[in-house]
Amino acid sequence: MTGATRQRFARRENNGLLLAGVGFLALFVVVTMVIVAHPGPNGLDRWGFDTLGYSPKSPTWTHITTFGSLIFLVAGSLAVGVVAGLSQDWWRAAACAGGPYVAVALAQWVIKPEIGRYYEQVLTYPSGSVTVVAALAAAAVVAVPGVLRWPVGFFGLVAIALESLAVVALRWHYPSDALGGALLGIGTVLVVVGVLGLLRFTLIQKDQVDRPDVSRPVVTTSLLNDDSFHGARR
Fold first, then answer.
1. What is the mean pLDDT of residues 59-64?
2. Where in the chain are the domains?
3. pTM to 2 decimals?
4. Phi and psi for 167 in degrees, rounded to 5?
């Protein structure tokens, strides 16, 4: 595969990731609009609470929520950044390592205070724990080589589902809080990867335009090298 072919393939993949990220964020906006219109428990929340029993002291669910903690965010983002860096694509490595932090910052410091949805006097939408797990899962899928993306994506979905069940069973969040966190985490990371990838290709194209093509022979038009001039002197 030539360098130009690799660049076209990488650009096509980057555009696909960006489009997928926009799609996830669009779904997040739809869920958010529903919650803004009806902040209380909706049909999904009531069904989830009825289906999943209240287990406030369950050690299993409590241990699972560790995956949505700050320690796991730091360790996980570092790990996916290193894995992505093995391909020497430093732009993607930076996106995979930094994207989860962007998602969590949006959830905790922007969206939660703005939406103002409470459960037991605590801001709950979207779930920060689920946002962490979903963002790291999306970053892991992007970071690994293509052949590993399906199995990594499968385990990522399992992790997101378990984290969502845990926060609902412990009654930390409504089910719709968990859904919002999953959509926000995945969508934000994919958009960050897509935007940085787009910036990277833009800079590459600019560099190729600005850099002279030294592979082409230089044709001189100097009068001193003109045979007709020397013939005239003779």
1. 96
2. 9-204
3. 0.86
4. -70, -25
